[in-house]
Design a protein that fits this description.
Elements: E1 2-6, H1 10-21, E2 25-29, E3 41-44, H2 46-55, E4 64-65, E5 69-73, E6 78-81, H3 84-91, E7 96-99, H4 100-109, E8 116-117, E9 122-125, E10 130-133, E11 136-139, E12 142-145, H5 152-157, E13 165-176, E14 184-189, E15 192-198, E16 204-211, H6 221-229, H7 236-241, E17 249-255, E18 264-265, E19 268-270, H8 273-276, H9 285-302, H10 306-334, H11 341-352, H12 356-359, H13 364-367
Parallel strand pairs: 1-2, 1-12, 2-8, 5-14, 12-19
Antiparallel strand pairs: 3-7, 4-7, 5-6, 9-10, 10-11, 13-16, 13-17, 14-15, 15-16, 18-19
């Protein structure tokens, strides 16, 4: 059985690993000239770490376990402390941070290099599994559409779907190497959220999202950040100062507000942002893509008929991933997208009343998800 994966991001590479482990012949087609990701970090919750373990991906020393943290106001006062130890006891795993580039490299390392093709622009995908690209054509038993939030395959096979819409917020992102490594934290102010996520190697990933008009990109990103966040609590100004201007990222945040009615069109299956792009307010975008990858590999390895296997994948993944996507939207509207100072102050006062021990269970229905088992590699026989 032959599969073509269009897109070499987190979900696409995860799907390729799972399908390869299930015995499929896999080709990954990536439009960029090399595999990689935008220079920022990502949080991996226990549901994602379990998926990586099931896929046999060992990220080792690249993972930074988060053993403390909490919510603060812009002056730095703690609103709620996160029970990281209780979270680890509940899930058996921590929340972890990692460079996106290290995650992509770890996924690539889990695949034979000859399965990966870069600099390949896919020009057409048909429902019966034909993939045409610059310089060739492949007829596949399965095509995995993992080509991101602006998926060309989704536009072609779901022509009436409205596509991604603006979430209401835009975000700065950066990686700094400050003199002192801070702990994990989230800071709320009206219409704004700043997150701090320590990584390995002395690096710290940070982001700042704000409610604003789409397309309102500041002319000088560094100057804008220093003007708007220079008087916030430590370590936020220091992280901004320690981030090189050329490494600053700024993007409008989009998501698929209209859910797809199915994740399957013939022999084409959608996963990750191509299927259920969500705003980042729960940190679950990449995690849900890894869940997709493991469930797809399990479905095709346990159900002989491909059409039936894809139907099983759709039945499992569509309800859960769309539920998480809706929860991400709600989390934004109830948190960093609250612009009223009065409502923002009320929210913070209510959060101060939450006992620390209860914070370990926040999001447990999402983080507690466990992947199905995949086929184990058969060790070679010894003579």
């Amino acid at each position: 059985m032959r599969a073509v994966v269009v897109g070499g991001g987190i979900g696409g590479l995860g799907a390729a690993i799972g399908l390869h482990r299930a015995g499929w012949t896999v080709t990954v087609l990536e439009q960029a000239e090399e595999f990689g990701d935008v220079g920022a970090g990502i949080s991996l919750w226990p549901n994602a770490l379990r998926c990586l373990d099931e896929l046999g991906v060992d990220l080792g020393e690249h993972l930074a376990a988060q053993d403390q943290g909490g919510l603060r106001d812009r002056r730095g006062r703690w609103v709620a402390r996160w029970d990281a130890a209780g979270f680890r006891r509940l899930h058996g795993l921590p929340l972890a941070g990692i460079h996106r580039a290290d995650l992509i490299a770890g996924l690539c390392d889990a695949l034979p290099a000859d399965l990966l093709r870069t600099g390949t622009e896919v020009t057409e995908v048909t429902e019966d599994g034909v993939v045409r690209f610059d310089g060739g054509e492949i007829r596949a038993d399965l095509v995995v559409a993992a080509d991101g939030i602006h998926s060309a395959i989704r536009r072609a096979l779901f022509p009436h779907h409205p596509g991604p819409v603006y979430s209401g917020s835009s975000a700065f992102r950066g990686i700094a190497r400050p003199a002192t490594i801070p702990g994990l934290s989230t800071t709320f102010a009206p219409g704004t959220e700043v997150g701090v996520l320590p990584l390995t190697g002395g690096d710290v990933y940070w982001f700042a999202s704000s409610v604003t008009e789409p397309g309102a990109r500041p002319a000088d990103l560094k100057a804008y950040l220093k003007e708007h966040f220079g008087d916030w609590h430590d370590p936020i100004p220091a992280l901004i100062d320690a981030t090189p201007p050329e490494a600053l990222l700024y993007h409008d945040l989009h998501h698929l507000a209209a859910p797809l009615e199915t994740y399957v069109r013939g022999r084409v299956v959608f996963l990750g942002d191509a299927a259920h792009a969500m705003p980042p307010f729960l940190g679950q975008g990449g995690c849900q893509a890894l869940e997709d990858a493991v469930v797809l590999a399990h479905s095709v390895s346990t159900v002989d008929d491909v059409d039936a296997a894809l139907a099983a994948y759709d039945a499992q993944r569509r309800p859960r991933s769309q539920r998480v996507a809706r929860a991400s939207v709600r989390a934004g509207k109830a948190g960093p997208q609250v612009t009223s100072p009065v409502l923002s102050a009320l929210r913070m006062n209510l959060l101060r009343l939450v006992p620390t021990k209860l914070t370990a269970r926040a999001g447990a229905s999402i983080s507690g998800w466990r992947p199905p088992r995949l086929p184990r590699p058969v060790p070679p026989r010894t003579p």
